[in-house]
Amino acid sequence: MQFRRRIPALAAITGICAALGAHAAWAAAGATPAAMAPAAADTVYRGGLVYTVDAHDSLQQALAIRAGRIVYVGGDAGLAALIGPGTTVIDLHGRMLMPGLVDGHMHPLQGGGSLLKCNLNYEQLNIAQMQARIQACLDKTQAREPDAWLEVVNWFQEGMVPAGTRTSRATLDALKTKRPIFVASSFGHTALVNTRALQLAGVTAQAPDPLGGKVGHDASGNPSGILEDAAQETVAKQIAAPTAAENAKAAAAALDALRKQGVTTFLDAAAEPPSLEAFAAMKRQGKLTARAHFALLITPPQGRDPQQATAMVKSLAQRYDQGKVVPAPALTVRNVKLFLDGVITAPASTGAMLTPYLSLQGAPGNPHWAPSASRGPDVYFPAPVLSALLKDIAEAGFEPHMHADGDRAVREGLDGIGALRQQFPDRDIRAAIAHNEIVDPADFPRYQQLNVIPVLSFQWEKQAPDTMEGAREYLGPARFKYMEPAGFLAAAGARIAYGSDWPVDPLDEWFALKVGVTRINAPQPDHKYAGRLSDDKGGADR
């Protein structure tokens, strides 16, 4: 199926289908009754608009299914030979039927769990509003004073108002509680905690930065309450892990949300044992309603011993992978997830960049943006470690799915895959790099050359607080013109896939597709974010 240059978002659905093999049955579209076996179908749909997503985006009236496979797509008249005594006949009454959506990058257990926790709902809040929302959660759970943790999710850190607002442990210490509090940024790479939480975790002024993370400090050198990437784990491990029953509720909530969006296949893009077990339990109970693929997380410390890390993922795959992909919902464990960096947006600025971030400098009366001393962190997996790890996981039959937000992380990820291609020139390894928010133009053609799939979150390709206040000035015009480079990558021949990254963002597949086509946000009352994002014209003008 050819990509449609003017609508890369819809083409991306096709790319995901190819990547995960979920909709091979649509190859039957356009077949004629004469080519079919005479056996009756199990189910037929008629009287509708069947959107085939074939090379011509053709619309048909009817569709028939036998043994989980599509055996006919065409006009209503062609169904006669396929309807038997046991066939279920469904009249669509003019409604549309289309392939289920494939979400190529999300975190479903966390997403389902977020629907059940104290939730800031990605809203733009000032300090007082943020405090009031969290206080309301504390008041509703007063019986859990003074020692039970309060977990708060979906904090839109980059969207705090006014722009440039910074938070610290003092923000949470002002609340009427003695409980430890953990507030997770919706981006997943930053947490804000109160003093009680820091004390319980033993985080002091002397606390070192862990591999792949950073402990924030205030002007006095004390912990500020801001924890970046791996530094979050120091505090998070103090919180009791969800029980199997709680994870089951989260998985059920996630599957319900996915059904409402029309998602029939997903990739859990940082899977750990609790997620695998929760969705395996759904399968055992007959409640799994989507094909569930899992990219097993290998952390930077684990990656320092590639053989041991590979043995770990092999063990999990042997336990949970349910074999060949089939039309029915099942679990597939064939991928490995590696975080190469954090996020490019301020205030975190933990994406690994080729050149320094800019910072506001100069006297108060003459401010200007100039290069800072920071290019972000080193890539979390140094090149020799990454190369060895990719080799080992490929030999074990796994495919890499790497998070890379900044252009330095992207380049080193591409370099690692380049070495992998040289090691296994004849092997079909479907390597993916997720996010790719800033890519150096010199690297655009390498995706096609190395057969690397960029997995993009289309909903980010718009003007919004994170892309404007959180990125534009910090990146400077030379880099910002390539922010969210979907169109540039498509023009360079990359095979693009889509992933919502839920719960980093709300689960809204249709809004994401709209933004992927238009690069325009939803209408704003003040029209603050009304324009197109950056110089990437996407597919609209190609």
Q: Which class best fits the helix and strand makeup? A: alpha/beta
- Provide the low-confidence segments as ranges: 1-37
- Oligomeric form: single chain
How large is the count of helical segments?
A: 17
- As a percent range, the share of strand residues is 15-25%
What's the SSE blueprint?
Elements (H helix, E strand, L loop, with lengths): L7 H13 L22 E4 L2 E3 L7 E2 L1 E5 L2 E6 L13 E4 L4 E2 L3 E6 L1 H7 L3 E2 L7 H14 L9 E6 L13 H5 L7 E5 L4 E4 L1 H7 L11 E5 L5 E7 L2 H5 L7 H18 L1 E9 L1 H12 L6 E7 L2 H4 L2 H15 L10 E9 L18 E4 L6 E4 L11 H13 L3 E6 L2 H17 L7 E5 L10 H4 L2 E5 L11 H8 L1 H4 L5 H6 L5 E2 L10 H10 L24
Parallel strand pairs: 1-6, 2-7, 8-15, 9-10, 10-11, 15-16, 16-17, 17-20, 20-21, 21-22, 22-23
Antiparallel strand pairs: 1-4, 2-3, 4-5, 11-12, 12-14, 13-14, 18-19
Helix pairs in contact: 2-7, 7-8, 10-11, 11-12
Structure description:
This protein is α/β, with parallel strands linked by helices and 542 residues long. It is built from 17 helices and 23 strands. The chain has helices spanning 8-20, 108-114, 127-140, 169-173, 195-201, 232-236, 244-261, 273-284, 300-303, 306-320, 383-395, 407-423, 446-449, 468-475, 477-480, 486-491, 509-518; strands at residues 43-46, 49-51, 59-60, 62-66, 69-74, 88-91, 96-97, 101-106, 118-119, 150-155, 181-185, 190-193, 213-217, 223-229, 263-271, 291-297, 331-339, 358-361, 368-371, 399-404, 431-435, 452-456, 497-498. It has an 8-stranded parallel sheet with strand order 8-15-16-17-20-21-22-23. A hairpin with a 5-residue loop joins β13 (213-217) and β14 (223-229). The chain is globular.
